[in-house]
Design brief:
Length: 331
């Protein structure tokens, strides 16, 4: 395909570019050119897409079979891109999020679950869920049934600049007693960014449209399996100390942010690792073994070091002093 990737240098965007090149696609990227050189084989176009006139000049009269967009900012920016590309691209794949569903997410929620309200012309992005839903509406307004909304769940893998799996790997690397949250049998839903990329590219080639929950089936791995595999991959002497959710809550430790990936299996959080993904699997989604994701993420960290934290996301991870306080609490 002739593919235009909006971004293409970080996390999912980088995975899309590398996967597309490996498939033999002709890849153009559009970004500000501030994150290092473009991948070999890419046609790089440099522009700040938040500037409508700069975006118009950069796109010129180009035509593409498909566009993939990972934007998480103001929906108006996506609307500008879609408005310029609606007649010059056959397909628009938007990396959205399961966060667009109203909270708390119901157990077993499929793509028909109620979503938050969004505005495709909104020039703000303070609320991540609202911004993502606004982005969805902007894509749908321009591309209709030629739009693919990939409502990704927990995305992990090499190039992760949110820091969830990298934090666990670095914490385990330090060794010692590690606060391990909840029940080790807690089922997880996750997806490797490279599997998300491969599925979106195949969907674009087929002209697949609509909204899909794009994440593994619940129980693809468990919290225990994931952390135990991380200990093995890192080669650490870390001791996982499994700690009850009520102890974690009483200590004021927040799930997801201070203890990345983990969420209690309760009415408020349980639906996040228990979504219905039958539509995506029916449309060809496959997820690689989680051990491969962990090993490759560790290899990437060793080769390239930790990426700079994203300014639009909270910093994840538990302060060592706070972790010690929880671990030293009397039984």
């Amino acid at each position: 395909m002739r593919l235009l990737v909006m971004g293409g240098t970080h996390f999912v965007g980088r995975a899309v570019v590398e996967t597309a090149l490996a498939r033999g696609d002709e890849v153009t990227t559009l970004n500000r050119g501030m994150s290092g050189p473009a991948a070999p084989g890419v046609n790089p176009v440099i522009a700040d897409r938040t500037d409508p006139e700069a975006l118009r000049r950069a796109l010129g009269d180009g035509e593409w079979d498909a566009v993939i967009d990972t934007w998480s900012g103001a929906p108006r920016v996506i609307g500008d891109s879609c408005g310029l590309l609606a007649d010059r691209a056959g397909h628009y794949g938007y990396v959205s999020s399961r966060s667009v569903y109203r909270w708390p997410m119901p157990f077993g929620a499929d793509e028909h679950a109620p979503t938050v309200d969004g505005d495709p012309d909104d020039d703000k992005a303070e609320d991540y869920a609202v911004a993502k839903r606004g982005g969805e509406l902007a894509v749908l307004r321009a591309f209709g049934d030629r739009a693919l909304l990939a409502r990704a769940g927990l995305v992990l893998g090499p190039y992760e600049n949110i820091g969830r799996l990298p934090w666990w790997l670095r914490r385990i690397q330090r060794g010692g007693r590690v606060l391990a949250p909840g029940d080790p049998a807690r089922p997880l839903q996750l997806i490797d960014a490279r599997d998300l990329a491969l599925w979106m590219l195949a969907a674009a080639e087929r002209g697949l449209g609509g909204a899909f929950n794009t994440v593994s089936r619940s129980g693809h791995t468990t919290m225990g399996e994931l952390l135990e595999a991380a200990v093995k991959v890192v080669g650490s002497d870390a001791e996982l100390v499994w700690t009850a959710p009520e102890v974690i809550e009483e200590a004021g430790v927040s799930p997801w942010v201070e203890l990345p990936i983990w969420l209690p299996d309760d009415a408020e959080y349980g639906g996040m690792h228990n979504g219905d993904v039958s539509a995506a699997y029916g449309a060809g989604l496959t997820c690689r073994p989680f051990q491969e994701t962990i090993a490759d993420t560790w290899a990437w960290l060793q080769a390239e070091g930790d990426p700079a934290p994203r300014p639009d996301r909270p910093q994840v991870g538990l302060d060592p002093a706070k972790e010690r306080q929880v671990l030293e609490r009397p039984a």
